Amino acid sequence: MSSTSSASVAYSVLDLAPIVAGTTPTDTFRNSLDLAQQVEQLGYTRFWLSEHHNMVSVASSAPVVLIGYIAGGTTTLRVGSGGIMLPNHAPLVVAEQMGTLASLYPNRIDLGLGRAPGSDQRTAQAIRGSRFGSVQDFPRDIEQLQAYFSSDNSSSAVRAIPGEGLTIPIYILGSSTESAYLAAELGLPYAFASHFAPGQLFPALQIYRQNFRPSAVLAKPYVIACVNVVAADTDAEAQWLSTSLKQFMLGVIKGKPAPLPAPVESMNGLWEPAQQYAVQQMLAYSFIGSKQTIQQELQEFIGQTQLDELMVVSNIFRHEARVHSYRLVAEVLGQGELTPASPLYQHSH
After folding, report:
1. Under 8 Å between Cβ of 275 and 246
2. Distances (CA, A) of 173 to 83, 149, 267
3. Which of 268, 303, 312, 349 is the most exposed, fewest CB within 10 Å of its CB?
4. What is the dihedral of CA 187, 303, 191, 58, to 10 degrees?
5. How many beta carbons lie within 10 A of that of residue 168, not counting itself?
6. How far apart are CA 276 and CA 270, in angstroms?
7. Contact (Cβ atoms closer than 8 angstroms) between residue 52 and residue 58
């Protein structure tokens, strides 16, 4: 296995648009824009927003709207969905919305697609209505999207205007091996959600690389892995800051999600042993510590996974501390020639 230097890996942001305890979604969005403007200066490649519904702790229920907000407030950063949950939407509507964004912000918009509902089953039913079983249509819906973006669709009875003829990079998101097979078969880049589903990361990457079929848009596999990072000036401060993330995940496991809470001195008494184990399993790929600590651990992770790009999510209570964490990550990963900001999709399909 060849070694991949951390200095040669592109680095990006996944923003879950977390609602911090005591704040509103308005505060969340303002902080997201400020974060995007700061990471743009720090050399980050892209800024992706997730799609979640019916969660008091997450404000990103309409990622398309937020993509426009973030792209409008930045100049060079690629902005996209991490992801749009395609079974929740008709492919034509997604093509029109992303085509609108790509027309407003040329060569800066990414379309990451997932098949999960981004919510509970009852909410998924409310969103999808008669399309409730549409998760089975995920592969076909992706191909439909590609058709809408194609110039060849100009003679079709149904067209995406704007959208048609635009080069909008499509990424397959996944947290299981099933998505790896699909990304490989379609010859599309693959982004794995190891920030909350670490268990199948290595099997999924192996499947994707072994089964990859070159496509009109991608000649060889391209892998993004998303991880949690809580970086601070000292290990002790980072561990303290990370208790917000641990409390947040504990709420998810208990079925009682809540806005991102303030850090605590100790998690003792807040979780039972089984709950602690479950949280630690979900957060297996979390890098918590000083710049020196995360530098060594991220280097090992990048070497083991042979990533093309590292996507970082930092759920930290205070906005200033969150920005500082991303700054420390940039100092670790930005010490060399960066991968080009858009290594994919040199021509349209």
Report:
1. no
2. 7, 19, 32
3. 268
4. 180
5. 22
6. 9
7. yes
CA distances from 291 to 12, 56, 276, 297, 325 (A): 17, 32, 26, 10, 9
- Give the mean pLDDT of the chain: 91
Give the model confidence (pLDDT) of 198-220 as tens digits: 999 999 999 999 999 999 999 99
Instruction: Please classify residue 277 by burial: count the beta carbons closer than 10 Å to its beta carbon, then call 0-12 exposed, 13-18 middle and 19+ buried.
Output: exposed
Domains of the chain (ranges plus CATH)? 6-333 (3.20.20.30)
Q: What angle do CA 218, 109, 201 make, to 5 degrees?
A: 55
Give pLDDT tens digits for 131-170.
656 557 899 999 999 999 999 999 999 999 999 999 999 9
Phi, psi (degrees; rounded to nearest 5) at 311: -105, 130
Distance between CA atoms of residues 147 and 160, nearest Å? 9
Output the six-digit token pair for 177. 């091996």
* pTM (whole model) above 0.85: yes
Give pLDDT, residue 264.
97
Six-digit token string for 75: 């100049």
pLDDT in tens, 93-132: 999 999 999 999 999 999 999 997 666 677 777 877 766 5
What lies within 8 Å, CB to CB, of 126 at 6+ separation is none
Where on the phi/psi map is residue 48: left (φ > 0), alpha (ψ -120 to 50), or beta?
beta
Alpha carbons within 13 A on the beta-carbon side of 236: 1
User: 243 is written with which tokens?
Assistant: 């208790």
Do the beta carbons of residue 79 and residue 105 sit within 8 Å? Answer: yes
